[in-house]
Every structure is written in structure tokens, then in C-alpha cells.
């Protein structure tokens, strides 16, 4: 009996002298004219580092051209440097003058014209404890569970862990000739995660559509016989899987996240019902390993997103003599769709407005600063990613001195052309001119700023030309409006998470409570901000925060 073989990706180099295969063993595979690379191509037309093949988190692969001199072609089309292109089995890679073929066969999913598959037994109860205890040999079953659990330890990426798991299964079920694990993706694909074959051939695992539906869709473990494998010819049969057992891999909440299949082509020594019980029990710790890997990757993504978002937030408040700033940022999840910023205005507004039909809203002045507050529809990672894309553009335009109304128009145009369907962004931009003590506002669908006067009264700074949110219309009109700031005045920017905060009776905090908190607050920028925040907290006390909450206050001392 030969050693078990794992189906690994490879590059096949085709030359006039023949073919040679290079296994892609790690997460990165480099190609070029350097002798120490994974694939050394000795030709002056090949760049030293020419291209890289890299593994994605889902186990698939992509190719990246490393700004090579003569380019990299994928299936006849030149790829853009540093823009990854996904690779599929059989893709032709041309690195002049070499021809390479990417090999990464996944499981063959078939639906024969005549379904020869016979389901001997379907198992719906996948409780690991019950499956083991009702085994005719419970001691042996527990030893098998320990065998597979041990195989799941030892570290490595998910592919390595699952390969060890299949090795363990092959030892537990010696009659199995082949074993594989596929993972279920959100797009309906089932990429191959691990494969073992005791035979010397390199056959690709076969997954019947019928069995796939029973296992992944219905969550059943099945014992089957006579799965017909179609050959290359019309109506021909290459072979028949005589016996197989298949079980789903499930998350803690019952989602099907993959499946395991063990099969044999030879007659006799078929799988029995007790084997199905045992494999179903062994699938439980394997499913835990898959889910844990997904959670770790998701946690890493959230951590990275949180760090990126923190980096986008201002690291310090503006140092404007006679002005004070205060802010509160509380996302409903680890990352949020709100974002505020303090931006020094360094450009010349008149120069920035040359060639535009719109009037210049802000003449240049010393020490000007802009305050922005934006909110993406939704919350969590998708909203954070959109805001992370918009924020740098807003910062660039405002810093360059582009008037606030024109800045909104430009950002809207870009977001409308490249935005995500069903997503929109509200944005409020205000520029402070400390030499004149005025505030110039422009609004894109965002809640209006509020102004608490030094005498305790308040005003709604509703800009006359407030326009719709970004991304809704291609060419909306935004207009700026200026307001004078007196000593003791405090301006409040806030996101809709403030007024939408719900109490236990599902009653919104609302604008009336916000205005009451504003009026009842002691004077001072920080006092106003803390008063509003305390009122919101009291309103939804004991209930989870529903939406991102951001408050920015500033004003004259």
C-alpha cells in the first residue's frame, strides 16, 4: 500500500523539452530570474522578482505581477501589476517565453443522467455523546475520538490540521481507500480542504450532487453505495464508488460548514451502519476545529479593522487659541460606520476654486480648521470599510482648501460612481475661521448641527442648502452657510445613533430630549458634551447600544 497522497496545487512548466511540475507548498510561491526563488526561470526577458502566487484565506490562490518588465499574462490577458488575479485549475500563465499551467483540481461534483447512488441509511441525530454511547463497541469508539482529537492538535494552518484529521480517519477506518474534507462557502462553492488516497493514482475526489444536498443542505449523515463516476467519454463510466460514508461538519449553532467523505472503490469490506455512527461522532471535533479557525480569522479581521479605524481618528484636538474641543466616539460593535475628524486647512480656498462654476464659500484665513462627522448606513465591518474609503478623500479635499460645499459634491461624485448599491453616507463638514470667529457648514443628509448660545438658548444650524446623503444622486446641489460664533457658544455635531437610542419600551431618545439636555447643561464645551452623553446613557440604561454614537462639541471660550 502506498503512502497517502494529498492533492496540492502546483505549476506545470511546459517547454520544448517536456513538462515539469513544481509543487506550491507554502502560502507564497515566487517566480523570477533569481536562483533562490521557488521557480527559477533563466531568461533575460524575465524580471528578477517577476510574479508571486499567493494563497488566500479561503484556500484558493491568486497571482500577482511584481511590476515585471515584460509583464505577466493570464489566459492571454496581461494583468495589472500588484492587482491580484484569482487562479483556477488549468489557467494558462505566460511569462515570456515560458508557458505555465496552474493545477489545483478540486472535488468533482457530478449529477449523472442515471443516479446510481443508493442511500442505505440516513442519520439525523448527530449528537456526539449519543453516537458514541450507542456504539456496539463504545471503548473502541472513544479511542477513535481521541485519535482524531489528537490529530487536530499540533498547530499549523487549517489545511494542515484537516490533513492530519483525514490521516486519523484513515487509521480509524482502515477499509477507506480515499478520504476528503470540503468546506462550504457562502457563495455555494465547496473548495477541497484536505484529501488522502491510499492508491498510487492521483484521482480527484468525487462528490455526488445528490449526496452533497443531503449532507450540506439537509444536515444528514449518510451511508451509501454505488456512486457512479463519469469518465471522459459520452456516457462512459470510469469507475464506481462501491461504498461511502458522508457526514456534515457543523458549527455550534447548527450551520453546515463542510463535510467529510470516506469511500472505497473495491468490492467487499463495505462500510457499516456502526461506521456511519462513528464518523458522525468524529465529525463533531473536526467541525469545532473548522469553526474555531473561522472565528480566529474573523477576530483577526475585526482587530485589524479596529486598528485601522483608530488610526483614521484624530490623534489630537486642534490647538486654536480661545477654542475648546470635546468628542465621544462609541461604536455599537468593535468597529463602526461613524467617523469624525479634525483637519487643518492648509490650502488657498480661492486657488482651489479656480475653474469652478460654484462660488468660493470660504476665503483664506490663518489657522483654519475643519470638523467633520460622517455616518454610513448600517454598522459593523461593512460600514467601517466604506467610511475608511471615504475619509481619506474628504481629508485630502478639505486640507487642500476646497470649499466645504464643493468638497461634498466631489466626494459624492466619486462615491456614486464607485459606491456599494444600497449604501449611502451622511456627512457634515464645518470650517472654523478663528480670525473672524465664524463657522461655515455644508450638510449631506446628516443631522443638523446644534448651537448652544452663552445665554443657554439654542439654535438649529440647518444649512439652507443642505443636500441629500452621499451616493444617492449623481449631481446633487450642496450649499454652504456661515454662522458667527460668540464667546461661550458651543456647537454640537452628532450622529443619528444619539437620537435613535432606544429604551426598554422601544422609545427613541429623539431630538426633544437632545435639545433638553443641551439647554439644561452647564456652560462650557466639555460640560455640554458630557450632559448629552449622560442623558443618552440614562435613556438606554441596561439595554445594548443599538447604533454607533458619536458626539463632537467645540466652541469659543
UniProtKB/TrEMBL annotation:
Is Hydrolase set as a keyword in this record? yes
- Give the FHA domain ranges: 29-79
The cross-references to Pfam families, in alphabetical order and at most eight, read: FHA, GAF_2, SpoIIE
How would you classify this enzyme at the top EC level?
hydrolase
Q: Which GO terms describe its molecular function?
A: phosphatase activity
Matches recorded under SMART domains: FHA, GAF, PP2C_SIG
Entry superkingdom = Bacteria
Q: What is its EC number?
A: 3.1.3.3
Could you list this entry's UniProt keywords, alphabetically sorted: Hydrolase
- SUPFAM superfamilies, per the entry: GAF domain-like, PP2C-like, SMAD/FHA domain
Q: Give the protein name, as stated in the record.
A: Phosphoserine phosphatase RsbU
Organism for this UniProt entry: Aquisphaera giovannonii
Q: Which gene encodes it?
A: rsbU_5
Amino acid at each position: 500500500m502506498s503512502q497517502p497522497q494529498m492533492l496540492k496545487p502546483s505549476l506545470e512548466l511546459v517547454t520544448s523539452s517536456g513538462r515539469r511540475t513544481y509543487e506550491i507548498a507554502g502560502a507564497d510561491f515566487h517566480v523570477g530570474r533569481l536562483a533562490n526563488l521557488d521557480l527559477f526561470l533563466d531568461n533575460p526577458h524575465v524580471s528578477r522578482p517577476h510574479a508571486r502566487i499567493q494563497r488566500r484565506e479561503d484556500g484558493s490562490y491568486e497571482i500577482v505581477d511584481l511590476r515585471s518588465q515584460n509583464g505577466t499574462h493570464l489566459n492571454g490577458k496581461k494583468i495589472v501589476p500588484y492587482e491580484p488575479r484569482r487562479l483556477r485549475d488549468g489557467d494558462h500563465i505566460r511569462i515570456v517565453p515560458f508557458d505555465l499551467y496552474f493545477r489545483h483540481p478540486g472535488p468533482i461534483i457530478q449529477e449523472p443522467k442515471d443516479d446510481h447512488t443508493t442511500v442505505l441509511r440516513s442519520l439525523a441525530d448527530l449528537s456526539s455523546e449519543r453516537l458514541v454511547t450507542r456504539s456496539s463497541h463504545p471503548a473502541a469508539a472513544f479511542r477513535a475520538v481521541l485519535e482524531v482529537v489528537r490529530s487536530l492538535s499540533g498547530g499549523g494552518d487549517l489545511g494542515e490540521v484537516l490533513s492530519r484529521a483525514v490521516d486519523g480517519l484513515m487509521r480509524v477506518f482502515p477499509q477507506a481507500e480515499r478520504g476528503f474534507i470540503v468546506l462550504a462557502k457562502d457563495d455555494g462553492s465547496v473548495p477541497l480542504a484536505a484529501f488522502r488516497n491510499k492508491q498510487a493514482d492521483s484521482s480527484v475526489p468525487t462528490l455526488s450532487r445528490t449526496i452533497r444536498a443531503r449532507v450540506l443542505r439537509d444536515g444528514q449523515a449518510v451511508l451509501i453505495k454505488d456512486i457512479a463516476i463519469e469518465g471522459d467519454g459520452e456516457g462512459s463510466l470510469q469507475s464506481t464508488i462501491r461504498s461511502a460514508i458522508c457526514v456534515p461538519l457543523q458549527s455550534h449553532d447548527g450551520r453546515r460548514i463542510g463535510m467529510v467523505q470516506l469511500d472505497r472503490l473495491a468490492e467487499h469490506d463495505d462500510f457499516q451502519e456502526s461506521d456511519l455512527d462513528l464518523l458522525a461522532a468524529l465529525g463533531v471535533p473536526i467541525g469545532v476545529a473548522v469553526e474555531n479557525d473561522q472565528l480566529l480569522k474573523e477576530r483577526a479581521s475585526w482587530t485589524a479593522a479596529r486598528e485601522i479605524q483608530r488610526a483614521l481618528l484624530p490623534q489630537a484636538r486642534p490647538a486654536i487659541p480661545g477654542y475648546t474641543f470635546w468628542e465621544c466616539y462609541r461604536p455599537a460593535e468593535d468597529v463602526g460606520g461613524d467617523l469624525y475628524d479634525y483637519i487643518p486647512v492648509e490650502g488657498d480656498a480661492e486657488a482651489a476654486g479656480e475653474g469652478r462654476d460654484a462660488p468660493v464659500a470660504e476665503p483664506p484665513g490663518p489657522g483654519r480648521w475643519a470638523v467633520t462627522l460622517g455616518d454610513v448606513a448600517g454598522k459593523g465591518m461593512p460600514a467601517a470599510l466604506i467610511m475608511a474609503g471615504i475619509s481619506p478623500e474628504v481629508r485630502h479635499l478639505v486640507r487642500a482648501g476646497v470649499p466645504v460645499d464643493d468638497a461634498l459634491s466631489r466626494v459624492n461624485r466619486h462615491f456614486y460612481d464607485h459606491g456599494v448599491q444600497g449604501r449611502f453616507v451622511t456627512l457634515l463638514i464645518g470650517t472654523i475661521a478663528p480670525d473672524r470667529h465664524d463657522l461655515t457648514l455644508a450638510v449631506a443628509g446628516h443631522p443638523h448641527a446644534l448651537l448652544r448660545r452663552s445665554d443657554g438658548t439654542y439654535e438649529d444650524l440647518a444649512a439652507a442648502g443642505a443636500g441629500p446623503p452621499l451616493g444617492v444622486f449623481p449631481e446633487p446641489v450642496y450649499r454652504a452657510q456661515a454662522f458667527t460664533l460668540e464667546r461661550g457658544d458651543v456647537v454640537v455635531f452628532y450622529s443619528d445613533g444619539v437620537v435613535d437610542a432606544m429604551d426598554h419600551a422601544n422609545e427613541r431618545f429623539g431630538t426633544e430630549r437632545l435639545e433638553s439636555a443641551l439647554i439644561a447643561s452647564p456652560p462650557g464645551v466639555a460640560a455640554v458634551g458630557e450632559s448629552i452623553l449622560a442623558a443618552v446613557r440614562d435613556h438606554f440604561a441596561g439595554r445594548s447600544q443599538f447604533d454607533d454614537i458619536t458626539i463632537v462639541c467645540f466652541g469659543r471660550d
